[in-house]
Design a protein that fits this description.
single chain, mainly alpha, Endonuclease III, domain 1
């Protein structure tokens, strides 16, 4: 099982082998197309000259990190704000998980514990935590007992609700259509 998004193969490879890169990508998945968010860790690695490291990014001068995010093409629509969020996330990973983002899910005894751990991370709310649990379960085989329930509707088999369900262009189109329908329903109700 792997993450196989319609992005540069090297970006997918980084997401599959570097838990921090995957976590950063999920954090950045807001107000930009998911392809841009999930390719950004690879762009950051290229700018750093090495794969992202939680302790290094946590200790990095914020202005330097902001410059790396803002360098054209910017890694995110809001490079300064996202650089700050990535640094906060890396501080949490460095302090709480000894710099090993993979411990967030490797040490989780249940799906609910995994969801709580992810939701406690800076920049991860309830919905983003559920999507990340679904991504881990569906794409990387991280399936502690109760993971589907902890992921809520995002954990449903055969759904097309989030990045957890994207494996190619066709599935990406289905996820985008689902999101469009949800926004339309919210506008109609609001």
């Amino acid at each position: 099982m792997t993450v196989t998004l319609p992005i540069d193969p090297q970006a997918n490879d980084l997401l599959n082998r570097n838990p921090l890169a995957l976590l950063i990508a999920m954090l950045l998945d807001q107000q930009v197309p998911l392809e841009r968010a999930f390719a950004a860790p690879h762009g950051l690695a290229q700018r750093l000259g090495r794969e992202p490291d939680a302790a290094e990014l946590a200790a990095c001068d914020l202005r330097t990190l902001e410059e790396l995010f803002a360098r054209k093409p910017a890694l995110h629509r809001y490079p300064k704000a996202m650089a700050k969020r990535v640094q906060a996330l890396c501080r949490e990973v460095a302090e709480r998980y000894d710099g090993d983002a993979g411990r967030i899910w490797a040490d989780a005894a249940s799906g609910e514990e995994l969801r709580r751990r992810v939701a406690a991370l800076p920049g991860f709310g309830a919905q983003k935590a559920q999507i990340f649990v679904a991504l881990l379960g569906k794409r990387l085989g991280v399936r502690p007992e109760g993971w589907r329930e902890a992921a809520g509707a995002y954990g449903e088999e055969g759904s097309h609700r989030s990045v957890a369900d994207v494996v190619d262009e066709e599935s990406l189109i289905k996820v985008r259509e689902h999101k469009r329908q949800m926004k339309a329903a919210a506008r109609a109700a609001g």
